[in-house]
Amino acid sequence: MVDPRPVAAGDDDFILSNLCLTGPKGLDYTNVVMDEQIYITRRGYHKLQEAMEALKKRRPLISHEIKEAREKGDLKENAEYHAAKEEMAHNERRIQEIELKLGGARILEDQGDLPTDKAYIGATVTVTDDTRTEMRYTLVDSSESDPSNGLISISSPIGKSLLGQAIGAIVTVPVGKNGYKLTITAITRG
């Protein structure tokens, strides 16, 4: 709900609560509804909570930066003021993104016995490439993705190719001109 009060020069609480109601190009974030549930590990859920708390702790610091910059004079030509306002908007957008994700999150470990016959989110998939090099990927939500540790987002080219496939399937990863093929040799759940 947008507060119709005019913004007073020292009204930092108003700025905090109403700054990020519209985003770039006037996109309205006030009526964003989480229409898809995401599946995430308990560790990933806690990681998102920690990130959100860190962002919330930044609010008073950024608000203080805005206040200090405002006191320096003309706001039209005050680069510090505009940078601080932009930082606040980015911070608030990120908080909203995380809140939406957490609001629709379902913890994988709480889902009971998930099937292991196909590669679904949370599964560790062992694959071989054309040179018979074996690799292991764990399919995760994009918020948990860490390719250097084998955590592959289900929205990545490899993740999309593996998702829903069974052991023995040969998938083509659409990277480069012709892509490359992977053969699924095993599927396990952590």
Summary keywords:
single chain, 190 residues, alpha/beta, five-stranded mixed beta sheet, two-stranded parallel sheet, elongated
Written description of the protein model:
By secondary structure, this protein is of the alpha/beta class. The chain has 4 helices and 7 strands. The protein has helices spanning 12-18, 42-70, 79-103, 157-162, and strands spanning 38-40, 105-107, 123-128, 134-140, 151-153, 170-173, 180-189. It has a 5-stranded mixed beta sheet with strand order 5-4-3-7-6. The chain has a two-stranded parallel sheet with strand order 1-2. A hairpin with a 5-residue loop joins strand 3 and strand 4. Helix 2 packs antiparallel against helix 3. The longest helix is centred in the first third of the chain and has 29 residues, at 42-70. The two termini are 43 Å apart. Mean pLDDT is 79; it is low at 1-35.
Largest sheet: spatial strand order: 5-4-3-7-6
Order of secondary-structure elements: HEHHEEEEHEE
3D shape? elongated
Q: How much strand?
A: 15-25%
Structural class comes to alpha/beta
Residue windows where pLDDT falls under 50 for at least 5 positions = 1-35
Total strands: 7
Supply Rg.
Answer: 22 Å
Averaged pLDDT = 79
Main pleated-sheet profile: 5 strands, mixed
Tally of helical runs: 4
